[in-house]
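One chain shown below:
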Amino acid sequence: MSLLRRVAVTAIFFSCLVISGPLLRAQSSAAPAEAAPGQLQASPEQSAQPPSQKPQEQLPNAPSSSKGLSLEDLGFSRSQTEADAKRQALLDKRTHMLKVHQRLGLITTAPLVATVITSLGAGGKDESKASRDLHAALGGLAGDLYFMTAYYAIRAPRVPDTPTRGPIRFHKVMAWIHGPGMIATPILGIMAFDQKSKGEKVHGIAQAHGPVAIVTAGAFGAALLSVSVKF
């Protein structure tokens, strides 16, 4: 009996080995490989990153090329740039108003010349009421345009530290002649017109209407030429 028992135990032992061998091999193939000692296991995000891709280096801050340089980038302070902007706006406004002044001055020339021409028939021997009325109407139109022209010159803003040179200086000197003349000429003309309307001969200070008008027209023409013709 002891021999048979030994044979049975041996047979059972080999049967267990045959059955457990495939199970051990399946478990070893399904288990994840253990990392070697001292080696860290990579995370899924790191393992998904291509090995050739490297993290971008942090570049120093630099001005963006999509935006142009400002005046402050060039070394100008904010107070300096604001002062220059105000000065430029002042200069632009002055230039605009003086251009209007010049254009109105050219327009004023037409009725002013016509007024001088019609004065020959308004105060001569062959005078008539119609010629006096036409002369007075042209004189009034010339006076209105003249004072509109003067308004744009007087109201134009002054730019500091801007010297007056050459023809402009002469232009301003002539203004001191034709300006008072354009005030005195209509007043003297109204006095002469009233005297003529009453059938009287022009007398007194009204007689200066013609000479004052000629001097005024001459000074106005010289002022106009000084800014129209270079000399």
Remarks:
- Residues 78-228 form one domain.
